């Protein structure tokens, strides 16, 4: 999507990193660039508003469920593997148990 107008920050860059902006997972300098872009680009601002509304709705409807500790540990383990550059298996062999792993 592009509004067709020239911007300092391209629409495609903003939309590619929209969830990082919504989750505040980017440097403040990038957040400032995105905010400036939304101030001058109504199609991107509309997309941002829509995604923000969906995120709030999901949080309101699903935000009260506790995440099981073992699931959280597995997810955090995968994140650490990815960050460290270790190869990540396609499926979780540890959850299948030794009897399934030996049958393959």
TrEMBL record:
Domain of life: Bacteria
Primary gene name: rsrA
Compositional bias ranges of the Basic and acidic residues kind: 84-93
Protein name per UniProt: Mycothiol system anti-sigma-R factor
Gene source species: Streptomyces ficellus
UniProt xrefs under Pfam families: zf-HC2
Residue ranges annotated for the Putative zinc-finger domain, each copy included: 11-44
Region called Disordered, residue ranges: 84-104
């Amino acid at each position: 999507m592009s509004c067709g107008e020239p911007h300092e920050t391209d629409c495609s860059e903003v939309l590619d990193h929209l969830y990082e902006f919504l989750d505040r997972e980017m440097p403040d300098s990038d957040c400032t660039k995105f905010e400036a872009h939304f101030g001058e680009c109504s199609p991107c601002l509309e997309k941002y508003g829509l995604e923000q509304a969906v995120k709030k709705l999901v949080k309101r409807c699903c935000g009260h469920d506790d995440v099981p500790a073992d699931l959280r540990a597995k997810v955090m383990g995968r994140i650490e593997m990815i960050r460290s550059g270790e190869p990540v298996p396609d499926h979780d062999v540890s959850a299948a148990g030794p009897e399934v792993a030996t049958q393959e």
